[in-house]
Design goal:
The structure is a single chain. By secondary structure, the protein is of the alpha/beta class. Among the domains are: 170 residues, Rossmann fold (3-Layer(aba) Sandwich); 113 residues, Immunoglobulins (Immunoglobulin-like, Sandwich). It is 30% helix and 17% strand. A six-stranded mixed sheet has the order 11-16-15-14-12-13, with helices on both faces. β5, α9 and β6 form a beta-alpha-beta unit. α3 crosses α13 and α16 crosses α21. It is globular and about 75 Å long. The termini are far apart. The N terminus is likely disordered. Bound molecules: 1-deoxynojirimycin.
Amino acid sequence: MARSTQHPPSGRGARRRPLALAVALLAGAALTLTGTSSATAAPTGPVYLNAKAPAEQRVGDLLRRMTLEEKVGQTAQAAVVRIQGDCMWSGGDLTERCMKEVFDDQEIGSILSGGGMPPKVNTPKAWAEMTNAIQRYAIEHSRLRIPLIYGVDAVHGHNNVIGATKTPQQLGLGATWNTGLVRELGASTSEAVKATGVSWNFAPVADISRDTRWGRYYETFAEDPILAGSLAEGFVKGSEDTGAVSATVKHFAGYSQPMNGHDRTETHVDPRYLRDTILPAYKQAIDAGADTVMVNSGSLNGIPAHASKYLLTDVLRKDFGFKGVVVSDWDDVRALQTRFHVVGSYADAAAKALNAGVDMAMLPPDAVDGYTAGAREAVRDGKVSMRRLDEAVARVLRLKMKLGLFENPFVDASKADGAVLGADKDLAARAATESMTLLRNEGNVLPLNKDLGKVVVAGPSADSVANQNGGWTIGWQGIPAGVDEPGVTVYEGVKAARGDAETVLAMDADEAVSETEGADAAVVVVGEKPGAEGELDSENPSLAADQQDLIDRLEKTGKPVVVVVVASRPIVLGSAADAKNLLMAWLPGSEAGTAVASVLFGDANPSGRLPVSWPKTVGDQPMSYLQLPGTNGGPSSNYDPLFPFGHGLSYTTYETRGLTLASSSVAKNGTVRASVTVANTGSRTGTLVVPVYVERPVSSVLVAPRRLAGFARVDLAAGQQRTVEVAFPMSRMAVTQGDVDGSGTPSVSSGAYKVVSGGKEAALTVR
Ligand code: NOJ
């Protein structure tokens, strides 16, 4: 199929519409692109099509040629269902009528598949063919041949695609404390995403985990801002390393702490907590070079985040220096009118969001037309200045140019299956293995001997690919019924590890108990069903009573029982809190069984450490190790978890032998260099997470007794001792000064601090 190299005419009326080509595509003619076709203009063409011209010149040139309608279109991102099937929610084949409405009439510049929304046949090749077909139509029907940018939520691998490797969900990655690994995962995900014609990934989440009632808890990395920020930084760098995919730091800011634990209910955070605890993780990820930021869908202190000029302009642009694209969350521009009632019309909603700092509106199918009409009206009426619109459009165009979309808008669909199906399984298995967090190992039952006579594998998550993946897998709420998604379940992993030895799957509770009575050990895999967003909110984030009962009954057999928790959060365990052998597997993804089995049988030595506090009771929310000690003295008024932040056991033993500082005094803006000497005093190789905390000085503003300042992971052979340096800027310990209004600026208090790790400490004076 030859593509026209005709230069774009400058007048709107001269729009080219090679409809025959598009119709052929949409009629189902197989789109096979040989190689990646290039739209690079001849040197005599317009500057904006010249890939060699400086980006700013290209953007300026293109902007000058654009009409209001074309500009507004670049600030809009439509859900792909808007151009499939019935043009609304049905999905299915691309529909020419809808494509015409979206691209010819509304000039939309971006498409997303949000939480599923696959092509009719969900294979990588079909994804690539779909994105190519949409891209081709969009370019051919854009007077200026502006390519679109396609976005997805690839939050644990290319998770919407059947057969794509599913990495652990973020919270499990939090347990690895491994920024390098997370960077590798970001890169791997980008490769998969790119192979299907997608260049925008709505990940990572830089919100911090504070409340297990919230259904999106598992999408965060950690309760601690430094740990969450460092891992988000790793993901951003890895994602963008290839230069072909943009990451998104979301959900800016303060999304994870709705007051009553329910998603998108009001959030109230005082300015000091916002600045010192919530914002740093986003900042760290943004500083890593993230191309885009997504806005918090909820409200903060009585203002919808999408309407907050303070957040989106003062903090994000002025303080953080962010230069990229700010995208709204799902339908959140219209929500300013319909859900928040801060404005009376869609046009005013568009104005409010654009003026606050939103550059692109993410639109469900029924919100697209209203947005473009409203935004055009808002600009025509002077509610949004052309300058502000140009600024938003320029950011979008700059991004498309940076990603090379003007030159290489298509992918080779024939390569997509090969690039995606089962790709990087070893990496995903390694990530899942590193995430395994051994919480209890009484009597050293673990690791199990592979040659035990009979092992029973029981529990609702023992053989469930759906449960081990959680939400955002094929479908928004998890793998839809009837979808055959590959994955290694715990049962399969245990069976594979044991070869010919007898491994029995017992899904029924009575059967599990009677089988265990005649077995050498039981592995019981409990937890939660998949879900996402509000659907997974819980007023009682606990292990279901029947699962607690199953564990109790199995333990009563007197046989060794290992409880494996496959869950989106540290669920309150009830009677299972007394389980003798407890392994947290988080939501480990497609390679769950391989990872769990490798830890159960000792092929891998567990190294996961809790990135969050494990609560004893459901009343313990919100919770974090950074909470201030209560002054009442009542029971549990202090930090009182079942397992604390950072907890995790190993099959070997470690000792921290020393902690020294390069200098015992540091300037407020200086860097602390702590050297920690650790040793493996047991008989197995292992990896030790070395957290370095800073203890508070005398400070007029209250700060947690101990805050994480930096960390490292150290591989240690049996008997080996190593010294590792953990360096961190003292500015990480800054707190916002001022009275209860937090009206001061963040600064580091001078005085006497302590740096501590593994029971060792060193005095530090801050000047
Ligand atoms: C809503 C979610 O809040 C956000 O995380 C996601 O990226 C978008 N939907 C798109 O699916």
